[in-house]
Amino acid sequence: MIDSILANLDTALLYVFALSALVGAVLMLVLRHPMQVAMALISTMVSLGVIYGLLGVHFIAAFQVLIYVSAVMVFMVYVIMLLDTRDASFTHRFSLWVLPGVVFGVLLFAVLGYGVVLGVDYVANTPASFGLAQFAAAFLTEYWLQFELTSVLLLVAVVAALAVIKGSKGRQRG
Amino acid sequence: MLLLVAMALFALGLIGVIVRRNLLVMLMCMELMLNGVNLSLVTFAQQTGTTAGAVLVFLIFVVAAAEIAIAIPIVLVLVRQRRTLDADAYTDLHG
Amino acid sequence: MVLTLIVLLPLAGFFANGLLGDRLGKPFVTVVGCGLPIIAFVLAIKSFLVLLAGGGTPIVETVFTWARIGGQSFDIAFWFDRLSAVMVLIVTGVGSLIHIYSTGYMKQDKSYARFFAYLNLFLFFMLLLVLGRSLLVLFVGWEGVGLASYLLIGFWFEEADNARAGKKAFITNRIGDAGFLLGMFLLFWATGTLDMDRINAAFMSPKAPVVSASLVGILLFIGATGKSAQIPLHVWLPDAMAGPTPVSALIHAATMVTAGVYLVARMSGIYMHAEGASQVVAVIGVATALFAATIAVVQTDIKKVLAYSTISQLGLMFVALGVGAYSVAIFHVTTHAFFKACLFLGAGSVIHALSGEQDVRKMGGLARKIPVTFVTFVVATAAIAGIPPLAGFFSKDEILWFAFASERGGSLLLWAVASFAALLTSFYMFRLVWLTFLGKSRMTPEVEHHVHESPKSMTGVLAVLAALSAVGGFLSLPHFLEPMLPLPAVPEHLHPLETPLLIGSIVIAFAGLAGAAWFFGNGAVRAERMRQRFAGLHRVLAGKYFVDELYERLLGMPLCWISEHVFLRTGDRMLFDGTLHGLAGLARRTAGAFSRVQSGNLHLYALLVVAGIVAGLAWSFRFV
Fold it and tell me: Mean pLDDT across the stretch C518-525?
């Protein structure tokens, strides 16, 4: 009986946190202050992390929180606080293309959903059949090239960021 | 169901890029899109049992981090010159 | 080889004079321009002797194959038989004489080299015309002489009227050529060949070709009408007098205008079986003869009188062709070449003596002052009037006899009209002599002061031609041409009338002379009185029956209107320009509309990306 409750609990939690992610996403669209939008996004990301954990890929969940929330979103919040300007984008949140944008977004969802419904069953609540060891080994055997390339990508990102800041500083001084 | 959620997140992110005027909010909506894609990849990985989906998710983490590391300095430089975060102010490339 | 050489020598003269003439000066042009035709004449005599030695069998020279289409091959070949011999001798002989004359007449002209180049070019095409074996080669020559005529009529093209006259000649010719081409097509379709000897044989054979001989005959005659200035395409010849006088003599008297007569005579095989066509030829010929003769009576320009005289004489030649007397027509071509060339060159001499005056009302009393010109002119006039024993008498009498008595269309009416035309010919020619040379001088003093005889190059030629006009009648060409162009049969009961008709011709000639003396002697008082009494008739005749004005109203103005309104305004401006501008405008507007998409607005770009993705995905589901 405990198993049946646990099994149902799993599914229920899944639904709850899926809903939470969606609510966060919708809030992102309507809140006015960028800081509020950032908070909504963080909540969505954390919900997604929980979903990953429920699905059994605990390391992915860990990295979701580690990279996205603590690195990316923190950076984002810093910049929002730095550039707290009350300009036209604050008073008028929405661009000219609000209605067409919403319509096409819904259309996109419909088209993609149709594709999904055509051929895919619902997710089964079975734990992942691959372990962390297998996952790590894959990086060093099958996907070693992508692994190395990501290191190159990070190097490029560092250089680019430096270039942008240095370049702008140069213009400022001159 | 999770796939539908993933697609909804993606669609909402896209709507956000089109709808909101603030540059930083647009960036955050793009992060939302990436998260939607991540969810769908994890779902696929869990369904098929291979490692491919999870590996791709990991790579997307790296790319997202790199992307935000560059996009925000660009926004900073732009704002320093124009003093506004409104996307409608940056229409120099019209023809 | 010899025939090809005869044809090519003038062509070489054209190139030499045209390209090098201006640089190497007048002596070079004179030697080349006159020398080559003279050599061609010598070669023609040589070929003629060869022909006689061979008993008249034709000499054929195939030069090269022009085209091979399907199973047919079209060759450039030259054919020299009795008829060709006569024509070639006239063309090269009289042509050479006129070339020599031109060295004197055009001596002061600044385009001396160009003149001789064009004359040589004309000679080349004319020889191509008379020596060609197939209708194709003849047609090349036909068109070529039309071109040379245009170039030479408009020789002094700085005057717009001269250029216009040249254009008129060429266009009128072209209209006739349409008929000629249709005739050629029909002949080729019916007989499978364009060689004239083969076509004649096909028509003479018992099994006649499918096409109607009369139809072909009429179509070819339409071409002849254009070239030989018969009604209704005669309008270009009087205007062609705008060209230099040697041109009028060579082209519009002796050679080019006789090409139509040559064509009909050459295709006698067709015309002998084409009753209808022959009748049409005779009727138009006699009508033209009368028509032109009446106009010539009142003309005041010395060259215009001779032009209308040429048209009238050509009409008589066609009368002969129409009643089946082909060799008689060629005989008249020969004698006409002699005396008409002499008349034209004589007129040129008069004009030269009077420093450019051409109006006979301002002439008179020149007989003593330019005696050589006067004598040669009178001899030629007597020849054309038909006074025996000069050349014109023989040929004209033969024409009148066959017009009356030939079994193939001769009639009393035809003879009567032709005789009346002959009477008028004698009358207006002697009128010309009286007004120009005799009586009191009506010249302006400065002109009278400068009157002088022409140089030897001109008077020498006049003397030769006058001599030929005198004795040419004894050549008896019809007898020479008999083996290939038999004379038509004459009914038995009409034979006794031959002598009375002969005497009648002589009476007509002298009657004309007497009439001219009566009216135009003693200061032309009686002529003046006649003119005032019949002022209306005089106006119609002087206005050439207003044919030019009729053509202008009937054809010229409607065509101009159509060109202006239909083709220029509607067609060219509205349709073509409108379409082009419309398309360009459309492209511009569309591009303008499309370029507004690129507004610089990020949100719009993102929206369009989404729209594209949605469309692409929706489309891809077709294949799921």
Answer: 75
Crossing angle for the helix pair C135-153 and C259-266, nearest 10 degrees?
A: 170
pLDDT of residue B16: 93
Best of A29, A93, A108, A112 to mutate (most C CBs within 10 Å, chain C): A108
Instruction: Give Cα separations from C87 to A30, C260, C486 (angstroms).
Output: 109, 12, 18
Q: Which residues of A touch C607 (CB under 8 A)?
A: 97, 100-101, 104
* CATH class entry, domain A2-142: mainly alpha
Correct CATH for B2-93 of 3.40.109.10, 1.10.287.3510, 3.40.140.10, 3.90.550.10: 1.10.287.3510
Identity of residue C441: S
Between CA B66 and CA B71 the distance in angstroms is: 9
> Measured between CA atoms, how close is C583 to chain B, in angstroms?
23
Structure tokens at B7: 């697609």
The H-or-E segment that residue C76 falls in is strand C72-80
Q: From CA C227, how far away is CA C139, in angstroms rounded? A: 12
What DSSP string runs through C471-510? HGGGG-HHHHHTTTSPPPP--GGGGGGHHHHHHHHHHHHH
Model pLDDT for residues C585-596, shown as the tens digit of each residue: 999 999 988 888
Token look-up 């060891």 returns: A133
Q: How far is CA B15 from CA A39, A80, A111, C256, in A?
A: 18, 21, 15, 92
Residue C195 DSSP label:
B
Say if CB C282 and CB C318 are below 8 A apart. yes
pLDDT at C422 over 80: yes
- Residue B64's pLDDT is 94
Residue ranges per structural domain of chain B: 2-93
Contacts of residue C88, defined as CB under 8 A and 6 or more positions apart, other chains included, come to C6, C44, C47, C48, C80, C127, C130, C131
Does the CB of C601 have a partner CB in chain B at under 8 Å?
yes
Residue of C607, C617, C621 with shortest CB distance to A100: C607
Give the model's pLDDT for residue A171: 66
Highest mean pLDDT among C8-17, C20-29, C513-522: C8-17
Structure-token pair, residue C351: 């004009």
Note the pLDDT tens digit of each residue in C161-213: 888 888 889 989 999 999 999 999 988 888 888 888 888 888 888 776 777 78
Please state whether the peptide bond connecting residue C491 to the residue before it is cis, i.e. omega within 30 degrees of 0: no
pTM: 0.71
Closest-CA residue of A relative to B43 is A123
Tell me the shortest Cα–Cα distance from B94 to chain A, in angstroms.
16
Q: A110: exposed, middle or buried (C-beta count within 10 Å: 0-12, 13-18, 19+)? A: middle
pLDDT of amino acid C459: 87
Q: Do B9 and A34 touch (CB under 8 A)?
A: no
Assign 3-class secondary structure to C232-290: CCCCHHHHHHHCCHHHHHHHHHHCHHHHHHHHHHHCHHHHCCCHHHHHHHHHHHHHHHH
Count A/B contacts: CB-CB distance under 8 Å. 226
Q: What is the mean pLDDT of residues A106-119?
A: 87
Burial label, C144 (beta-carbon count in 10 A; 0-12, 13-18, 19+): middle
Backbone torsions φ then ψ of C132, nearest 5 degrees: -65, 145
- Percent of chain C residues topping a pLDDT of 70: 99
Extract the tokens encoding C7. Answer: 């044809």
Provide the token pair at B55: 């590996």
Tokens encoding C207: 């099994």
Name the residue with higher pLDDT: A156 or A124: A156
Domain map (residue ranges) of chain A = 2-142, 143-174
Task: Answer whether A65 touches B (CB < 8 Å).
Answer: no
The string of pLDDT tens digits covering residues A6-37 is 778 888 899 999 999 999 999 999 998 999 99
In angstroms, the separation between the Cα of residue B33 and the nearest Cα of chain A is: 10
